[in-house]
Amino acid sequence: MENNTRIGVFFCNCNGKITEKVDFEPIASEVKKLPKVEYVRESQNLCAHLEGELICKEITKNQLNRIVVVGCASAKEEGFFKEVLNKAGLNSHLLSMVNLREECCAVHEKSAKSAAKALELTKMGIARANNLEEVSFGEIPVNRTVLVIGGGLAGLETALETAARGFKVILIEKEDKLGGRLARVNSIIGVDHNPADLLEEKVKAVTSNPTIDVRTNTKLGDLDGNIGGFTAWFVKDGVETSVEVGAIVAATGVQTIFCPVKYGLGIADNVIGQMKLERLLADGKDFTHKRISIVIGKGTEAFNLPFVIAVKNALLLRKKFNATVNVFYTNIKVGGDNWEKMYTDARGAGVNFFKFEDNIEIVANNGEIIVNYEDPFLKGKMPGVFKVIADYIVIPEELVPAEGTDELAKILRLELGPASFFSVDNAHILPEMTSRDGIYLVGSCQSPCFANEVEISAKTVAEEIFQKLDADQVSTELTQPYVDATKCVVCLTCYRCCPHGAITIEHGEQFKNLYFSAAQMNPLACRRCGICASECPGKAIQLPDYTDDQILVQLEAMEVLP
Amino acid sequence: MSADANFQPKIVVFACENSGWLAAEHAASLGLSYPERVELIKLPCSGKIDVIYFMKALEKSDGTMIMACQQENCKFLKGNVRAAQRVRQTQNLLKEIGIEEDRVGIFYLAANMGHKFVEIVQNFYDKMRELGPNPGKVIK
Amino acid sequence: MIIAERKPIDEILGFLSKHQKVLVLGCGGCVTVCLAGGEKEVGILGSELAMARSKEGRPLEVVQKTIERQCDFEYLEGIRHIVKDVDAILSLACGIGIQTCAEAFPDKIVWPGVNTKFLGVNLNVGVWAERCQACGQCVLDKTGGICPVARCSKSIFNGPCGGSQNGKCEVDPDTDCAWALIHDRLARLGEVDSLREIMAIKDWSFSRDGGPRKLVREDLELESGK
Description:
The structure holds three protein chains of three kinds.
Chain A: E1 7-12, H1 24-32, E2 37-43, H2 49-62, E3 66-70, H3 75-87, E4 95-98, H4 100-105, H5 112-130, E5 137-141, E6 145-149, H6 153-164, E7 168-172, H7 195-207, E8 212-215, E9 218-226, E10 229-236, E11 239-245, E12 247-250, E13 254-257, E14 271-272, H8 274-282, E15 291-296, H9 305-321, E16 324-329, H10 339-349, E17 352-355, E18 361-365, E19 368-373, E20 386-390, E21 392-394, E22 398-401, H11 405-412, E23 439-441, H12 451-468, E24 473-477, E25 482-483, H13 493-497, E26 503-507, E27 517-521, H14 531-535, E28 541-542, H15 548-556
Helix pairs in contact in A: 1-5, 2-3, 5-15, 6-7, 6-12, 9-10
Chain B: E1 11-16, H1 20-29, E2 38-43, H2 51-60, E3 63-68, H3 79-96, E4 104-108, H4 114-131
Parallel strand pairs in B: 1-2, 1-3, 3-4
Chain C: E1 2-6, H1 9-16, E2 21-27, H2 30-33, H3 39-56, E3 61-67, H4 73-77, H5 80-83, E4 88-91, H6 95-104, E5 109-112, E6 114-124, E7 127-132, H7 148-151, E8 168-169, E9 172-176, H8 178-188
Parallel strand pairs in C: 2-3, 2-4, 4-5
Antiparallel strand pairs in C: 1-6, 6-7, 8-9
């Protein structure tokens, strides 16, 4: 902050809206008396092109270095005035705006009280302007390698999409071969391609791509740093290696837990889950004229996937094998592309759908499966329990995050969300993003999803990474909090409180304190929320445009009345 | 207890720019009105609120509040949680020195809730009228 | 880390009742890290005191300053010019800092603003637990890195006592029995048999029972013998 601060105050009447309720003269005359205020002017409409040019000239003529606009404070006009400041050679952060229009004129009547408020708001804006500081741009060198964790369909797609955008990719898979669960299914909804063939295609594309480095039997052991500069430690056969990467995509998927005991059944060849059914179908098992009971719902209602797969397989069994298929359901969740049609087709083909409410009784008897069924709709007219006999029963598995997701979340410093899957930043906007920029989610590791959704997610993430890491140096405005190393006691409070993992403890001679160390906020990963600044017990952290001085000085400008 | 029926409390509202600040603009666009002696200070997130801001505000006013995004809906995930903690911290400090804890509070709303903004401000204003002038104001 | 906690406000207001202008002095050492007496707390306490006294109708002028540490005389020298203008100092440093401050300014009343509670670890933001009592004869080599002096309520050696139940101390259901922890740790390290050795009774003369302690490293002293 220079000692020769010269403030220019510009009143804007917003085409008459302001002076309808508040007069400028009493405010202007008070403001002119304030120290450091060097220039005051009124205008009918300040955000016009010609006015902008005039302001430029006035800034230069009066050597103004802080500008206060008294009128409105909307984002659009802020952009206009920031450009005016830039044109006049001033840093765009030396602008303060006082919102008389929305805070005073639109909500109060013309009175002595509202006039007093308008004057006080103006004084607050001027006091803040006095404390404003410049903020510059910085060129941040970034690493442009992408790490993809997981070699299933999601991982393979992501690797291909990011490689297609020119990134070097490292794909790690904890098992000894690629493919994940795709190798084990018979058909994929919405994709008219044999899964085995699709898999072979994808694996070939990945392994033959010179920019994709595939490492099997490899897990992520530890992670440091932030977007553009992660250091990842891989563990393979007990040996640790470290690699620098710029972005990370978690594509670790989901696992199924088959628990027949929950339905009162034991282990048997004809008591299977959907995954086993897929396997049997893929292996060419013959279900001709067999009787098959399928149960859906009952504890697996959180996700669409089990419902849709069950309907898909019911239709397939009916059409291909002319099997007798009875589907027992609590709900049919088919809100997706062509799913409703699939359900209607299944009904049309002769699959029987039986609704049950809470309880369904299933008994295994002499190689047959008997479902003792009570219809909740027909209870009144046709009471009694019906026995539905089948050769096979398909019961739903529980869908949980893949093994090791907990550990991985801790390493990536991400939180887990509903049902312990990875938590997304915002469920509506870009569900592939996490709370940490530079770490993304593709596929079922966020929530069980379908193969065609995986493709879209992979493309989205590749695009997002491309936007964030578009060159070897990324330009960004350095509006992240800055740390006064002389006050930093490296207590780790900010490091622990940051919801985005954007803070690291750095070491070096440049930190002029007893520890030669201080917390630093990564300009690319930081989201400028200011939580660290208010948690810091040593008052070492300040957030540009919202520093303690800039806020407290507004309070100081307020009058106290008894 | 307000001894003076003409007492008009001064309120300082710290408004998160993703919720309260925009709700105030929304209220203005709807043509609603609220008491004059209410002044807003913008913050980037409710998590930026500091106990010292509340304390300095109370040295000058009768009541203060932070307006935050709805619970579990903070754009920065934890901001409104930290803000609630700071309000609690401030309330403990006020209680210690015999000042009513109701003079500081946290209120949750979304950016498009202009009516809610006015409701919150009006209710708080009325409450401060009941409590009377803040005995802790530092009049120099 | 030394863990301290601000004293009850009534006690502090009692100390300051005769003064009109005080210096609230913070410390950038342990009390900043344990969120009790750093620059932030100095600001908050200063405001709280001003408001409380304003309420009583007897205004208090508060000067605020935080220095790197209060336990080194050099840092205290730096504020001598501020100290001469105030009626008293309210120090938020640990007991060591408060005493050093009092020694540096013998003609000025120095009030303690915090209670120094224990030496402990920071388990998470806002949570600290006692770990060491500076007994002067560390036995952590025999107990798998868990201290029977600080973490056992009775500070016994060769525990546990009869009050240990399900790994918890009879004094407080939330307190782990240190000897249960020690046993489990040694078992995990494959050293549980070492507990068969009886540990000798503690010689408390190495602790404060021997009088105030002093440590001199002659090989490091400055030539002036200071």
